[in-house]
Amino acid sequence: MPDVRALFADYAAYHQTKGNKAFHRLGIPLIMLSLLGMLSRVTWTATWSMDIGGIAGTHILDAATLLIVIATIYYCLVEWRLAIPMFFVSLAFYIIGVKLPLWLNVVLFVLGWIFQFIGHSVYEHKQPAFFRNFVHLLVGPLWILNDVIPVVKRA
User: Fold this and answer.
1) SS3 call for 37
2) CA-to-CA distance for 3 and 152, rounded, in angstroms?
3) What are the domain boundaries of the chain?
4) For residues 139 and 15, what is the distance between their CA atoms, to the nearest angstrom?
5) pTM for this structure?
6) Nearest CA to 38 among 60, 62, 9?
7) Counts of helices then strands in the chain (DSSP H, E)
8) Which of 68, 72, 76 lies closest to 97, judged by CA?
9) HEC profile of 99-137
10) Model pLDDT, residue 152
11) Could you report the per-residue pLDDT of 73-115, keeping only the tens digit for each?
12) Nearest to 94 by CA among 32, 26, 31
């Protein structure tokens, strides 16, 4: 598993200017919030019955919950001290995103990506890091969280 400092250093190489960083601090949370809100509407339902006392149950899983679980596992492997607060941020974004109407989630998602591309095209003059390494889609939120809760010292 890559070291969080190496991931942050690689990510930071694509985010050097103050303007790009500012647009990312707005865009990344908007994307996270709205993505979780949209993915919460993609659900799978499983119904089962057990032989013991005829107990039946239904379990609903949504894509947002699955993404949070997968991302949290990855974050725990990379840096557990950031993984724990990121889980709670993700949970809060999930709760808010679920309550927002779908159209608003879509608008916020598009706006978040517009902010990302303004940061890169106007200020940074580099392509986004995830064009080269898809993992940076998970590194970005952790990088922003590390600004709020400085756990990892950056080079």
Assistant:
1) helix
2) 11
3) 4-148
4) 12
5) 0.87
6) 62
7) 5, 2
8) 68
9) HCCHHHHHHHHHHHHHHHHHHHHHHHCCCCHHHCCCCHH
10) 87
11) 999 999 999 999 999 999 999 999 999 999 999 999 999 999 9
12) 32
